Amino acid sequence: MVVGILTVKLGIPGARSLKEKRKAVRSVKDRVKAKFNASIAEVENHDLHQTATLGVSVVSADAPHADSQLQKILSLINETALVSHVSMELININER
């Protein structure tokens, strides 16, 4: 079993309030949840208006599939938001 973890830092330049930021973040999260069987949450920068950090995780039987899913999720996020930083990790649970 492989767990894939994606961390994406978003820039939200048009957000003038936390309410506007939450709306933008919710839109991204809803699109990812609707298209992929992945968990996604805002994990950092909760109090900053124009920055959000999202954590995404997928579980798969093999690393290539997990990597492919995370790449597709990142592409979807890139279509709808300004991505400023990306970190990706695959953890093979069987080897632990």
User: Stretches where pLDDT falls below 50 for ≥5 residues?
Assistant: none
Q: Give the overall shape, derived from the CA principal axes.
A: elongated
Counting DSSP H or I runs of 4 or more residues, the number of helices is 2
Biggest sheet: strands, sense, closure?
4 strands, antiparallel
What is the CA-atom radius of gyration, in angstroms? Answer: 14 Å
Q: State the CATH superfamily name.
A: TT1725-like
CATH top level class name: Alpha Beta
| Share of helical residues | 25-40%
Topology:
Layout: E1 2-11, H1 18-35, E2 39-44, E3 51-60, H2 63-80, E4 82-92
Antiparallel strand pairs: 1-3, 1-4, 2-3
Brief overview, please?
With 96 residues, the chain is α+β, with helices and mostly antiparallel strands.
Report on this structure:
By secondary structure, this protein is an alpha+beta fold. The protein has two helices and four strands. It has helices spanning 18-35, 63-80; strands at residues 2-11, 39-44, 51-60, 82-92. Strands 2-3-1-4 form a four-stranded antiparallel sheet, with helices on one face. The radius of gyration is 14 Å and the shape is elongated. The mean pLDDT is 91.
